[in-house]
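Journal club side-thread
Mid-discussion, someone asked how the predicted structure for our own chain would compare to the paper's figures. Pasting it here so we can look after the session.
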Amino acid sequence: MGERRGRHRPGLDLDRDRPEPRLSPVPTYRERLRLEGLTLAAFGALSAAAAIALTDTATDHSTSTIVQLAVVAVLLVSLGTYSVRRSMEKAIAAGQTTGEPTPLWTLALVVAGLTLAFGFLAGWDAGLRIGGGCVVVGLAQAVLFERVVAARERREGVRFFRLPGSSLFTGTKLGRA
């Protein structure tokens, strides 16, 4: 084979140092925020619509429902964006990762389970709040948090990926590449 043209750098083997092509693309943190958020919002909307359509009491205490959903939205804007930024600050350099995607079908189970539990135990207006809360949280995740991550990725020229070990209680562990 012919020689490579250009400047030769000692210790650099272009064929050996070339990254392996990925057979399946790893979802970035932004992609997962968008997909999981929109999915959660959709399941929440279905849950809320079902609570309204199938029960007579879902719209009881509507002022309380609106106030509680507004409080959730305010908390997401303040504490949620803080948490996303903190996760990005703690991100570690990571090579290959799975992206730790949440199976989307589990979101349906969570929304349905919470809606039914609160609906039967606390009243269907509480079930409606669960559905509405899932819509608010999902949209915050898909729109607000995704944009926070996008701005950071653009500014620093990196991509963030979810790492194993992330949980609701320990926070999202991120890798950066």
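Post-session note: The first helix runs from residue 14 to 17.
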